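Recap from last week: sequence in, structure out.
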Amino acid sequence: MQLSLVVPVYREEKNIPEFLRRIREVLVGQTEDYEIIFSLDPSPDRTEEVILEARAADPRIKLLNFSRRFGQPMATLAGMEYSSGDAVIVMDVDMQDPPELINQMLAKWREGYDVVLPQRRERNGEPWIKKVVSAVGYKVINKIANVKIPPNTGDFRLMSRRVVNEVVKLKESHGFLRGMVAVVGFRQILIPFDRPPRFTGQTNYNRFLGSLRIGFNGIFCFSTYALTLATVFGFFIAGFSFLLMAVYLLYKLMGWEILWGNPTLVILISFLGGVQLISVGILGEYIGRIYEEVRSRPKFIVDRSAGFDSQPR
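Predicted structure tokens:
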């Protein structure tokens, strides 16, 4: 059994030594046939040098360095594409994805599960706004999406080789791994755990905007419900306008005094304008993603690599 660990990194020089130490301790009783693939967005610190120093002592450590910063989702997909293991584990280097869970994940994989998902019970060290955005996002996505994404799960997961191969085949440019794995399917199981805080340093990921971007990808890339909602709003507002027109006509025919004046018009015009802008924005989100897919630009470009003798498997 060969195991691949895919670890996207950016400005993580202080976390890498501790990460490698704990990984080695975990894998001693599991397998010696493993590879650790660091997918590196070009960093201004010594992240690359630290990885190469570790590789000099252990050739099982490999490096992908991109031509520019493509972001964590694309770095993850690149590592998966270059991996060669029978099982592939995607995890962060900051120890918020505890290496000690690998034993349980491999045990479930040996039982026949193709996807093993650690599910967070507690999210220690995370701000409340990210927890709220995440909780609401999962509820909305699972309510309207065409696939079910288990709540409180991140990219930290184990996938069998056939799952990895199918995910890579999708060729989707948004990189929303949680949704892509859900689309692929196969036998899955959850492992609950309490997520610890970062080992050191601050996250290089924008907590609020990053979570919002992930949520939008989950909504717009895996469901057309937002378009339906915009249509429903349009019919509702049109019906409301006809009703209001009928009320005005009734008042006029009965000779009653109309109590509403300019404020009513201002409110209605503002409301209609807001709904129109929201509808246009929803269309823009879908069109933008269609544009990205049609463009077919490469998801990532590898500038240099270390430890790879061949092209992706």
